[in-house]
Specification:
81% of the residues lie in helices and 0% in strands. It has seven helices and no strands. The two termini are 14 Å apart.
């Protein structure tokens, strides 16, 4: 059961009942992103010559979900929380999958296989997005649990940042500048995906505060 809002927002909802369930839409998007990041990690583990259609399939599905939600967002008279936050958290989820797709395409194009650092960052990203999906699922039922999960997402972001710095330090001390250049692109995409994950966690935190 969703928590009933009080004050002016609750009064507006009683006068103008919400037409669309934006919580459900964002939950669906978060699950799609979690599946996409997991697909990237699975592809790394199987090798870059294995089938990789699942990653772009999830990105395309998310694009459709976001397009539908943005249409509803323009039509909605009321929203459960600030419509700018709804748009922003959805946009940042899209950025995460965009970075995953860029990673996938460039690894194939540059013939870069997954090393320990790449797998570690992808694992932290997948782990963090699973926590984010869980946090979205319980957002209205248990905001306190969502807040606990947000801290775990932030830890995953920090893991990615640390792995990135350590890997780049090692890479720049290596002997082949061409290998370093190619791998640096991959590392950077995964780091940026981690930062976008940190951003969705911050937006979710603001939402939790606004509805708690």
């Amino acid at each position: 059961m969703k928590k009933r809002k009080s004050g002016i927002n609750g009064m507006m909802d009683r006068i103008f009942p919400p037409k669309y369930d934006f919580y459900e839409m964002l939950e669906g998007q978060s699950q799609t992103v979690a599946l996409g990041t997991d697909a990237l990690l699975t592809w790394f583990k199987k090798g870059i010559l294995s089938d990789s259609e699942e990653i772009e399939k999830r990105e395309n599905a998310l694009d459709e979900m976001r397009h539908d939600m943005e249409t509803h967002l323009m039509e909605a008279f009321t929203t459960p929380f600030d419509r700018r936050e709804i748009y922003s958290i959805s946009h940042q989820m899209g950025e995460i999958l965009d970075f995953c797709v860029s990673t996938h395409k460039e690894m194939k194009g540059f013939d870069v296989g997954p090393d320990d650092a790449i797998i570690s960052m992808a694992n932290s990203l997948s782990k963090g997005m699973k926590k984010f999906s869980e946090a979205m699922l319980v957002l209205t039922k248990d905001p306190a649990l969502s807040e606990t999960l947000i801290r775990e997402i932030r830890r995953s972001e920090h893991e990615i940042e640390k792995t990135y710095i350590d890997a780049m330090t090692k890479l720049l001390r290596g002997g082949d500048p061409f290998i370093a250049l190619r791998k640096r692109e991959i590392y950077h995409h995964l780091k940026d995906a981690g930062r976008s994950m940190g951003t969705v966690a911050e937006i979710l935190h603001r939402i939790v505060v606004s509805i708690a």
